[in-house]
């Protein structure tokens, strides 16, 4: 599959990752679904779902370019002050839009698993597209996020196509709310419009997160078609 996806070398050079509390291990039902999804990924993928406390997570995401991430960070500082939020804002390099949560595990993913996931995702046939958000709001879990409506349709299409590529037995479309987390805070902010901000999505990134250690490693990249 040379040329269809790119393996990165960040396993030996970890990048700072998303801030936030330790994530909980998935439910038994969710674990079974993860095992079913990846049953066909070949050798080296047995650690798909953790039975005990998870230490590692894999997920596919779309990331803003550096310039846009900086702009988002500047606006986040203003929104944080305007709304009296106390939660620590994420660093610009940590911003991302999660497309598919792949697995929670008790150890780092194997190279075989990463290769299999990247190969599955490489069948994506979708051109690059504009990602835009035009409102902020708080989720019930305390995440203060950028969100949108019609402006996020491209992300919804990409998420469904990626889910179909990853799942050997595709299911009906699952609920998906495209968003970019800015910070976490106990205070809840009602949905409200903001000046539109966005970028052109040109690739999907497979991220290895070390839970509770604020470290993300970009272990594979799948380019979208260039128009």
**Stretches with pLDDT under 50, minimum 5 residues:** 9-34, 41-48
Distance between the termini: 22 Å
Number of β-strand runs: 10
CATH 4th-level superfamily: Cyclic phosphodiesterase
Order of helices and strands: EEHEHEHEEHEEEE
Class by alpha and beta content:
alpha+beta
CATH architecture field? Alpha-Beta Complex
Query: What is the helical fraction, as a range of percent?
Result: 10-25%
Strand content: 25-35%
**How many separate structural domains?**
1
Rg computed from alpha carbons, rounded to a whole number of angstroms: 17 Å
Largest sheet: 6 strands, antiparallel
Average predicted local confidence, pLDDT = 82
CATH class: Alpha Beta
Structure characterization notes:
This protein is of the alpha+beta class. It has one domain (6-223): Cyclic Phosphodiesterase, Chain: A (Alpha-Beta Complex). It has helices at residues 28-37, 66-82, 111-121, 153-166, and strands at residues 6-7, 15-16, 56-62, 97-105, 129-138, 143-147, 180-184, 192-201, 203-210, 215-223. Strands 1, 2, 3, 4, 9 and 10 form a six-stranded antiparallel beta sheet that branches. Strands 7-6-5-8 form a four-stranded antiparallel beta sheet, with helices on one face. The chain is globular.
């Amino acid at each position: 599959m040379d040329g269809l996806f790119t393996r990165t070398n960040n396993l030996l050079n970890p990048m700072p990752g998303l801030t936030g509390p330790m994530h909980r291990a998935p439910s038994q039902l969710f674990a079974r679904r993860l095992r079913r999804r990846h049953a066909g990924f070949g050798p080296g993928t047995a650690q798909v779902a953790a039975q005990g406390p998870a230490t590692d997570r894999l997920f596919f995401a779309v990331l803003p370019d550096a310039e846009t991430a900086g702009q988002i960070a500047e606006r986040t500082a203003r929104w944080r002050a305007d709304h009296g939020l106390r939660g620590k804002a994420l660093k610009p390099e940590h911003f991302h839009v999660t497309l598919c949560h792949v697995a929670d595990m008790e150890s780092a993913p194997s190279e075989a698993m990463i290769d299999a996931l990247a190969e599955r995702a490489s069948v994506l046939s979708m051109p690059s597209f504009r990602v835009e958000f035009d409102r902020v709001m708080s989720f019930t879990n305390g995440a203060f996020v950028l969100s949108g409506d019609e402006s996020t349709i491209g992300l919804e299409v990409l998420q469904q196509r990626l889910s179909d590529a990853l799942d050997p037995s595709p299911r009906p479309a699952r609920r998906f709310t495209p968003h970019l987390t800015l910070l976490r805070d106990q205070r809840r902010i009602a949905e409200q419009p903001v000046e539109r901000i966005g970028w052109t999505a040109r690739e999907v990134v497979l991220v290895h997160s070390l839970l509770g250690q604020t470290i993300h490693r970009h272990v594979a990249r799948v380019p979208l078609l260039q128009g």
